[in-house]
Write a structure and sequence with these properties.
Blueprint: E1 2-16, E2 19-33, E3 57-59, E4 62-65, H1 69-72, E5 87-89, H2 100-103, E6 105-108, E7 115-125, E8 128-138, E9 141-143, E10 146-149, E11 155-159, H3 175-179, E12 213-215, E13 218-229, E14 242-256, E15 278-286
Antiparallel strand pairs: 1-2, 2-7, 3-6, 4-5, 7-8, 8-13, 9-12, 10-11, 13-14, 14-15
Length: 287
Amino acid sequence: MDNRGIDLQIRHNNNIGKFNYSVTGNFNWARNKVLRRAQNAGAAAGLSLIGRPIGTKYGFIADGMYQSWEEAYDAPSPSGIVAPGFWRYRDLNGDGRITRTDDFTVIGRSNMPELMYGLNISLGYGQFDFNTLFQGAALCDVSLAGTYEGSSGTSGVDDNTPFTKAFYGYGNAPYFLVENAWTPDNPNATLPRLTAYKSSQSAHNAHINSGWIRDGSYLRIKSAQLGYTVPKNLLKAAKIESIRAYVSGFNLVTWDKLKYLDPEMPNVNNGFYPQQRMYSVGVNVTF
């Protein structure tokens, strides 16, 4: 492996009368590439990991959906039957077949961000204090379905997830699968047609493909806290050294392109529970 990057942190503190502030920004950019690795001698050159970052995503390129049974009939597929509303995979070598050997190509970045950054702001005025942390990442992609990683780190099987197949595992379906699903009246849909969990459809849509790739970049207000410290002269009679009351929140606002999913989720996963927005109120008393 070859790993190169930059770590940068800039901090500024200042006081203006009763007002004081501290701003700390951090920036981390790191890129890696494989220099040498044992590979199958018969692997296509386009699938070689040499010279590419660890975690680079390979798969089929999805060119929209099949729109009719006439179009889907005899359509090439790596998994058998194709129906209207199924992904249309690009035949890269033009041989009339869709195979992992000849039609796989690079479709996305690693889900490990190449760029991470943050901003911590601390403010104080009199007895009041405020702290907040912005956290962000960029240059990364998330695959909602496709190849699961085996326990040894090697590629496992391709499959859908609860985020890509309605009623997966006899469970409920996320509403975004319904509102964005292909139907004859919605031919420009961004997601395949709905199918029942045990329907006799093929696994065609479960293969890793560009249609399931999402930009994993995000910016999140990770935490914020507002506090008030009671003046010491009001506490002398009660023999209390200090009292500080506060209200805080976590994962308050997120700007991302995943919309319905947590941008900090792992890659292809079978039901990651998203981080929750939380609020808390407390009082610290020191005697």
